[in-house]
Structures are given as structure tokens and as C-alpha cells.
Amino acid sequence: MTPEDVREYNSARGAGQPLINPVPEVDDKHTFGSGASSSGRKPRYDLIPTWALQRIAARFQMGAEKYGENNWQKGASDKEFTLDRLNHAIDHLLRVRDQIHDSKLFVSHEQFTAGMEDDDLAAVILNAIFVMSFQRANEEMPF
Q: Is the separation of the CB atoms in 89 and 54 below 8 Å?
């Protein structure tokens, strides 16, 4: 299911606005130190570390190569797929917990992931992004 399909689905069932506004407005107007003004403050994307975005992008790429680009979007209105995303995230969190117990988490990312094809923490974030996307696409979760 593409984003366009989700919009059509929501429109056909009479859904209102998405559950989560993707860009919340903090103020109606903000004046910067230079005197320039803008309508409302936007989220601070500059605070997101580039290395974190790179790990998430690599995980998206891995999924695209394995399942096809944006395959995950087909699950936007599928209860079983959505629950599987949550279970998948929990499974990866449990692996991270085990890595902490084994003191493996405290080596460099490169050392830790050498010979592995999985990045457990990026997988947790990716699955959370999927579920957040489904929330946003549907006024309420479809179950």
C-alpha cells in the first residue's frame, strides 16, 4: 500500500486528520537574532546525529534490497504486520540487552558489527518508524 493508497483509504472511510501532526507548530511567529521572522518554530532536525541517520538509512537500504523499496508501506492497514513490527523491535531490543550483559555493546560499532548483517538498534528505530507511519496514515490504528 503506497502513501497515496493510504490517503485514498482514509478518504473513503471518512477519516479525519492523521493521529499525529508530522510538523508541530510551537509558536505562530518566531523572530531570529538577525531580525528575520518565520512562521513558527519547526522541529530541530539539526539535533539528530548524522551517524544515526546513516545507520537508519543503511537499514532501510538493507530492507529495500531484501524485500523491495518501500515494501513495508503495504502493511499500513494490516494488524498482523503492525504487531509483527512491534514484536520485531522487541526481539532486537532483547538482543541489545544480551549484548550489554555480554559486555559486547561497549566496543566500537565497527568492531561490534564486523561480520554481522544486522544492526539491532537501527532495526528497533526502523520498526518504530513503520508503526509511527501507520499511525500517521490512519486516524486510528486499523484494529
A: no
